[in-house]
Amino acid sequence: MDKRFRPDLYECFRILVIGRANAGKTTLLKRVCDTTEDPCIYDKNGKLVGPRGVHDINRAFSFRSNPGFIFHDSPGFEAGDESQLKKVQDFIEKRSKSTKTTDQLHAIWFCLKPDTSRPLLELEEKFFNEERAGKIPVIAIITKFDDLMAQIYDEDLDEEENRHDAKKEVQNKFINPLHDYSYPPKAYTLMEDLHDENSNHQNQVKDLVEKTAKSLNDIALKMLFISIQQNNLELCTKYALK
After folding, report:
1. Residues whose CB is less than 8 angstroms from the CB of residue 37 and which lie 6 or more positions away in sequence, other chains included
2. CA distance 240 to 1
3. Which residues pair with 107 in a beta bridge?
4. Which pLDDT tens digit goes with each residue over 102-136?
5. 3-class DSSP state of 235
6. CA neighbours closer than 13 Å in the CB half-sphere of residue 47
7. 130-155 b/e (C-beta count within 10 Å ≥ 16 → b)
8. Cβ distance 179 to 125 under 8 Å?
9. Are strands 66-75 and 13-19 parallel, antiparallel or unpaired?
10. pTM score, two decimals?
């Protein structure tokens, strides 16, 4: 049987999350997993090993409410430390070479905080200009779009005009440059007000999930990813009917 049509091949969906400090990564993951709990390290049997603690790319973590998602967290490259980029590249290569599907890396979420004074850093540019092992899809997530709105807010403009200008800023300083690199992201999405319970965070998560699913070539993996995203029945139904 063609392995692409065997859903039993995959037990979990593994995501590497990269981003600068204060990019809102933990808040994003909580929204994706529809939980308020803090992430912890769990063993393969679901037994609690301990709190997440110090960020270590090789230590997988998850949320008890949604153990189908396995995450790895890498600090951003703002320190300019080449060894940090090398550590990420080695991690991606090692996971790509794994023969066990449960150990493979399936997607990369690259979180970019829209700081107009430091749009893209040298090592971030290098990450997207150098070939990565395994051809694992990367989704660029522009987090804290509300912060960018505050940075460029013009009192002489109305809300929609300010939003339009902020989106243009993202397009010019982030999306267009990223698109021109040798190995650009597969897709882009904006996130804002994720900390606010009254925001439309569910629609934002839906957009991230749908774009991640579209970036996957393996049908079984795509279906697993959608099914694990428990709080989005609409997408589960949509892909089940395809």
Report:
1. 30, 63, 64, 65
2. 20
3. 15
4. 889 999 999 998 887 778 889 999 999 999 998 89
5. helix
6. 4
7. eebebebbbbbbbbbbbbbbeeeeee
8. no
9. parallel
10. 0.87
